[in-house]
Amino acid sequence: MILLIGEEVLKKNEKQRILLLKNVSKKKTGNSELAELMYQAVRTGGEPYYPTWYRWGYGWPLGRGYKKLSVEELELVEKKLEDYNLSRLKKDI
User: Fold this and answer.
1) Where are the domains of the chain?
2) Per-residue confidence at 72, pLDDT binned at 50, 70, 90?
């Protein structure tokens, strides 16, 4: 499940973003246990510095850290979102 929660998320600090994820998850699913599980999972496994293959909630290569997206990275994000949205449209047809 992908939750698009808006640009206001980008303006909040990390803990606030994760709490917002929890609140939105609960609102979208109606399942407070699932929301809590998602919150705890992202808190424990979502750092960009863990050398795991997944780095939940992060998605960039190891070593990038938290910094503003470059123009190239923003273009990549836009392309991936466009591809994702097109794939969803094709499934609905």
Assistant:
1) 7-92
2) very high
Smallest Cα–Cα separation from 58: which of 17, 30, 90, 7?
17
Q: Is the dihedral of CA 43, 77, 51, 12 positive or negative?
A: negative
In the chain, what is the straight-line distance between the N-terminal and C-terminal CA atoms, in Å? 20
9, 17, 23, 84 from 14: Cα distances, Å: 9, 5, 14, 25
Cα-based angle 40, 4, 88 (whole degrees, multiple of 5): 120
pTM for the structure as a whole: 0.48
**CB-based contact 21:37 (threshold 8 Å):** no
- CA-CA distances (angstroms) from residue 57 to 22, 28, 33, 89, 93? 12, 18, 19, 24, 30
